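We emphasize that the prediction below concerns an isolated chain of 105 residues; any contacts that depend on oligomerization or on bound cofactors are therefore not represented. The input was used exactly as deposited, without trimming of termini.
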Amino acid sequence: MVSEPMSMTYGMSEKLVNSGLLTQISGLSIADKKCLISYITQEVVSDEDADDDAAWDTFDSDLPPYTLEELHARIDESHQQYLRGEYVTAEESDAMLKREFQWLQ
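Result of the prediction step, given as a token string:
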């Protein structure tokens, strides 16, 4: 379902959103993005080890990544949904995410 861009930053601190880091990531190569994910995952694991109360799982997954064709198809479908008026506002998206992930709070 298409939603306003604001939902992409749901849960992020204002400091992160305003840092400019997110716009820099989009310009990175796939290899650099994978390295960055690995680095951040290691940081999270390290922080988790230091904080026994942390309830965070690393991003280990057996799921294969999307192909470029699959990603383009998803983008095209999202655009068609937008043109048909099938989208939600940032407020609606926030409310849906809060309901879905309330157990994390």
